[in-house]
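Inputs:
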Amino acid sequence: MSPQQKLASAIGGVVALLVVATIVGEILRRRTRDPGAAAVVENLVARIRAWWGMVAIFAVAFALGKYATIAMFSAVSFFALREFITLTPTRKADHRALSLAFFVAIPAQYVLIATNWYGLFAIFIPVYGFLLLPSISALSGDADGFLERSAKIQWGVMIAVYCVSHVPALLTLQIPGYAGQNALLLFYLVLVVQMSDVLQYVCGKLFGKTKVAPVFSPSKTLEGLLGGGAGAVAIGAAMAWMTPFTTLQSAGMALVIVVMGFLGGLVLSGVKRSLGVKDWGAMIKGHGGMLDRMDSVIFAAPIFFHATRHFFT
Amino acid sequence: MWLSTLLIGSVRALLGASAHWEGSAPTLAQRIYFANHTSHIDTIALWSALPAPLRERTRPVAAADYWGVDPVRRYIALSGLNAVLIDRARAEDGADPLAPLQEALSAGQSLILFPEGTRGTEASPGPFKSGLYHLAQRHPEIELIPVYLENLHRSLPKGTFFPVPLICTVRFGAPLKRFGGEEKPMFLDRARDAVVALAR
């Protein structure tokens, strides 16, 4: 298969899956009478609708090419950082640092991807952002809660900009024998993460008994994690044809993605808890905010990127 | 008007500025919307949170000594926002500073008013000036809608020139109850409390 054919069949497969999910959702909605169950079904239907939107956006970005995909993820970073900073208490003295984070750090990070400048891409935020953003806040001369404020801003930028930017950075990897197919790698990452989330949710609802993180994430169960994780690894292995990996390597990569995705959900729900909120926002109906939908991808992307870069380039 | 579209579009892209109607509904009734004031984007944020048919008949009230001083600001205020300009300092010849507002209200238009008269720096509004009381006295039939603008004091605080994108919400409360013969300080306190009650 040519790369275009592979991408078309991958997107076609997801569309077929969503058609089935949409039909099942509609049937469930007509049959469900119990109000408690109806709320669950409503949420499911809203989620399926949001996935349609996501697939549509992805399809358009892929069709328009590398730069459109990079631009799309810079918008994801913008919205994610906006959600993070909205919920994070900062002071007027941080105003300039925050403006720079939004209007300089985000564009710069994505321009570095577009221009293939890996060396600076990898350190721009962890080194330059880390040193300069608090310096700018310090120049405003307000020491109240300075460490907390600086730490929170850096955390937000790392999560919403640095980590997210590793998804489109997959497009820049030069993998021998895989030229022109990197969009598939990005697709693979997002597919495994999403399937892992869905299957963990479904397995948890069906078999869930043992809470795995009662304080951080009461809905996560051991049964859901193991069942959903195993399902996602199997799907990852079956998708080896669209990757530069062998079937076994693809299962291993999917396992890394599943584990990091689980940890991402856990850590970001801990952050939400410490900020005293349930959802990051209300941007995507049924999913909460951008960060609620991206939490697993955010943790999986950098590790998947570096694992692929280390072993396959 | 292209400028209105541009202003509303950029405020929505940066701040969301979504409307939450809590206690009142977006109807065409003639109203005075009164809100807390912390940033230069407040007017556009509140204005763009209104549905288009309401926006067409709602005019923000802006200070002539800021928005009327140079051609650019004047153009933005008058053409972009359809604002009513008022003199904050009472004119020397004893002219009624509320006259332009009276005129707009008599023409059936709604108004957006920031009764603090100036921008504050805190999440809660400062004391209200008496303009709202006088307008309410003269127009007992007009609905007085308290509005709370959330997060704008963080997005573009006084003394800064570039907004930080934060999700800002615009909360519309229930119409302020009218009591015949209520004293001015009581009324203004009650109006301010109605705005504060919408903050969380």
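Chain B has a mean pLDDT of 91. Flag for discussion at group meeting.
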